[in-house]
Amino acid sequence: DRARERLLRFALSLPEAYEDHPWDETVAKVRKKVFVFFGGRPKLMTVKLAESHGHALSVEGAWPCDSASF
Fold first, then answer.
1. How would you label 3-37 residue by residue, b for 16+ Cβ within 10 Å and e otherwise?
2. Rounded mean pLDDT of 45-54?
């Protein structure tokens, strides 16, 4: 889907970011750490947000997940 492709391109434009495919899914990593997970059912994306977590939860359809799910 186009939005997913645009988000992946943006993630990969960040310093030191690269694409990887663990678990047969697409992820963006920096220094071997996943920061965006494009996986599961269509249109599902998980992002690690330390500083803007509260703001991200204000977006319709967003919900918190347990970091153990990474």
1. eeeebbeebeeeeebeeeeeeeebbbbeeeebbbb
2. 70
